[in-house]
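Structure (tokenized):
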């Protein structure tokens, strides 16, 4: 099967160019000048299918390197399965996810990984890979890290938050970082000072402060900035590469920027919720409504100016990736577990479907360039986690993961409108996007076309990953 994506503007991390894209089977065969006969024939006449991309952008499928399908959290599970979550991702122009397999304290890493394969294999609409959460750093799990790298799982997430659940102390962090420095893996860090936060949470509850906004007020920016600083210093001490996930506090990113300026191999990621939403407006919504936006790190104060600073750091590359931290929970029966006690609200927001649109709106609003949109949402995550050039770029030999994006189209986000995630509400209700995902190809198969889902569960393949391409 050959497909010609004709007449569009192909956008990559270095800019945009008019080109037709020839897909042969699962991969991209060639980029040719519009109308060119360089390949010896009228491609439009010989291709099995022609997709007209005139006036549209042709971009690599999005790579969302931070999702949590079915994550066990707070006595419940994230509400998207790999089937529903990857289908929603496809609707939004994301064609690869990297999800987090979980090892909790007392479990074997390999058992956690096997459980994740059991959840995902045969279920996904798009390609998928795993990072490994190491929730119990000890001799056995350190040995498992070496084994997993050889198997294509080349990044490990540690938590400085959630004592008693996923938490690692500084000694455990140092040991895991030493192991990563030895085997080339990337250490991903949830950087919040969990033991300090637990004290603030207990004190707030004792004062009767139970509403969702107190989730944010008990995780102030200092707890993120302090943990980020500590993680960076420990990475420097051990020589491990470090990627700090879901950064939301401008002070934490300033610390990261300083380390990068000093030449340290450290990276930062943020998510759409930290760029658009705030502690005052969403987390502070009346009654229990704010529970919809309880996530960690928390939404930050707009009065303190975090959101604008994060956009700036996306421009300066001190933040290199936009992922979603997709971790959806329904309001009824899941978020409601925290009625009367914010600390029991499951942490997470669902966004896997909307990242490409939300960050494209940053292009329209003059916050980032078109090329930077593609770089932040596809190319850099692919390079960061060893998937490039198979993913993250439109180039001969790469997988034909292609999105035809219409800048003249429009997307109204809302539960009744453009919602395919397995949740009973949208955290993005009312957001209007000046663009639209028209057509999505996953490894040469059209999975979204003209408002129709044409994909299937099980099409998505598991991806073994190489080492990060940002290692020095
Ligand atoms: N943060 C969230 O919001 N949800 C899942 C885990 C995390 O670190
Ligand atoms: Zn986290
Ligand atoms: Zn996460």
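Design, position by position:
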């Amino acid at each position: 099967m050959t497909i010609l994506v004709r007449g569009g503007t192909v956008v990559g991390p270095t800019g945009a160019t008019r080109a037709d894209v020839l897909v042969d089977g699962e991969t991209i065969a060639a980029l040719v000048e519009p109308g060119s006969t360089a390949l010896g024939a009228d491609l439009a006449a010989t291709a099995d299918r022609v997709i007209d991309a005139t006036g549209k952008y042709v971009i690599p499928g999005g790579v969302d390197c931070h999702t949590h399908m079915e994550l066990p959290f707070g006595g419940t599970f994230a509400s998207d399965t790999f089937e529903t979550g990857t289908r929603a991702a496809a609707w939004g122009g994301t064609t690869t996810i990297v999800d987090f397999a979980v090892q909790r304290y007392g479990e074997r890493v390999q058992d956690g990984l096997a459980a994740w394969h059991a959840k995902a294999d045969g279920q996904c609409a798009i390609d998928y890979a795993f990072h490994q959460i190491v929730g119990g750093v000890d001799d056995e799990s350190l040995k498992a890290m070496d084994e997993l790298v050889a198997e294509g799982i080349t990044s490990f997430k540690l938590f400085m938050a959630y004592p008693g659940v996923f938490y690692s102390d500084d000694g455990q962090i140092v040991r895991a970082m030493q192991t990563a420095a030895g085997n080339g893996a990337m250490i991903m860090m949830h950087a919040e000072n969990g033991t300090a936060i637990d004290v603030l949470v207990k004190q707030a509850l004792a004062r009767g402060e139970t509403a969702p906004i107190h989730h944010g007020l008990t995780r102030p920016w200092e707890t993120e900035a302090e943990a980020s600083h500590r993680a960076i210093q420990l990475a420097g001490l051990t020589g491990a590469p470090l990627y700090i996930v879901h950064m939301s506090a401008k002070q934490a990113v300033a610390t990261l920027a300083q380390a990068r300026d000093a030449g340290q191999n450290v990276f930062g990621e943020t998510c759409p919720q930290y760029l658009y939403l705030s502690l005052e407006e969403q987390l502070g919504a009346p009654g229990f409504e704010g529970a919809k936006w309880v996530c960690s790190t928390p939404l930050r104060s707009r009065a303190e100016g975090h959101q604008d600073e994060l956009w700036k750091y996306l421009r300066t590359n001190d933040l290199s990736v936009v992922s979603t931290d997709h971790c959806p929970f329904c309001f009824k029966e899941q978020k409601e577990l925290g009625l009367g006690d914010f600390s029991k609200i499951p942490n997470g927001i669902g966004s896997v479907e909307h990242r490409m649109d939300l960050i494209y709106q940053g292009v329209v609003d003059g916050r980032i360039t078109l090329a930077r949109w593609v770089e932040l949402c596809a190319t850099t995550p692919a390079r960061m986690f060893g998937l490039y050039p198979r993913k993250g770029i439109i180039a001969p030999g790469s997988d034909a993961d292609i999105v035809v994006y219409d800048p003249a189209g429009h997307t109204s986000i809302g539960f009744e409108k453009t919602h395919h995630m397995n949740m009973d509400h949208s955290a993005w209700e009312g957001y209007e996007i000046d663009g639209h995902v028209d057509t999505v190809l996953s490894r040469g198969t059209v999975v979204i076309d003209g408002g129709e889902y044409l994909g299937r569960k099980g099409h998505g393949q598991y991806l073994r990953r190489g080492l990060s391409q940002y290692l020095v």
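Reviewer-requested clarification: The chain has a mean pLDDT of 97. The first strand starts at residue 2 and ends at 6.
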